[in-house]
Amino acid sequence: MKRSLNILIVCAVLFGFANLHAQEAISINENSAKEKKLRPIRIGAKIGFPIIIGGNLEYVSPLLNQKLAVSVDYSNIKSDWLVGEEQVDASNNDELNYTYIEGGLNYYFFKPGRGLYGGLSYGNINIKGTVHYEDSRDILDASHGSLNIKLGAKLGGLSYFRPKVGYSFSSLPDHVEAIKVYNDGSRETINFEFDSEVKPYNLLFSGLMANIGIGFAF
């Protein structure tokens, strides 16, 4: 009787270990399946500054356990939003082209390709156009580049939400140079001044970067 009881105890212990091992194997398989569901290509739209409104493309590489990603932001806006309406010659169609492009690397801290991440990037702003006045025209072609650091989060799977804040080591200047060409053919260099003291716009001239985005992963 005692021997039978010992056999039953041993069988129960072995069954418990076998069951535990099976559960661990299932758990490992489930985690592997979740990792395989990582969608490395992300295409989305962003709004904020300095991108204003534009698109984003990100690719999560297999490097560093799928935590290192390459990211590109692009925006191109053709608008008269920088033109002072009270001074512009209405007989001309004035447009200023605003282009922003940023490329860099993102590193996801905790999970492969999702959650909280930090990044290092380089961005360039270009403003180009001609503004007509009654007695002259201003020709603008200005560019500003900067190395940036950022902190963001990718929230979601197939569809996602992405908030991000950052800092530009070379903050936006409070003026840009332009060439003023008068109707008689003479010209001079002038400055377009921005009011960098007005809140909350002064945050932009201090190097702050911020945007939110949505998109899909594939």
UniProtKB/TrEMBL annotation:
It comes from Salegentibacter agarivorans. Keywords: Signal. This is Outer membrane protein beta-barrel domain-containing protein. Residues 1-22 form the signal peptide.
